[in-house]
Amino acid sequence: LARLLHQRGLLVLHASAIAVTGRGAIFMGDKGAGKSTTASALIRAGHDLLTDDVVALDLANPNQPMIVPGFPQIKLAADAAAAISLGQAQVRPQVHPAI
User: Fold this and answer.
1) Nearest CA to 17 among 60, 71, 89, 77?
2) 32 closest CA partner among 67, 71, 70, 75
3) Looking at the whole model, is its pTM more than 0.85?
4) Which of 55, 60, 53 is nearest to 9 (CA)?
5) How far is residue 55's CA from residue 99's CA, in Å, rounded to a whole number?
6) Are the CB atoms for 47 and 74 separated by under 8 Å?
7) For residues 57 and 10, is the Cβ–Cβ distance under 8 A?
């Protein structure tokens, strides 16, 4: 997915993105740094998810970069979901220990 987005001229980041009062907020970091957990906490506070894990930025207008919305789903470990008080109805089982 990242390669395809890059081929289409978009800047691709390993990050999560949230819409906060009409503006985008991007959280970047290594695997396990808390990007998805931070995004989930902001969603619980009433903000909207734009994308998780892969953020594509359209820089066609350098004065107004745009976050390309992605699939509205977040992958969290069970302990991260518990830390932000997500109900179990919103948590899917882990399919493999490495994923």
Assistant:
1) 71
2) 75
3) no
4) 60
5) 19
6) no
7) yes
Measured CA angle at 86 (ends 38, 96), to 5 deg: 85
- Tell me the domain boundaries of the chain: 2-90
The residue written with tokens 């969603």 in the block is: 43
Asked if residue 59 has pLDDT above 80, the reply is: yes
Per residue in 66-87, pLDDT (tens digit) is: 999 888 788 877 777 777 776 5
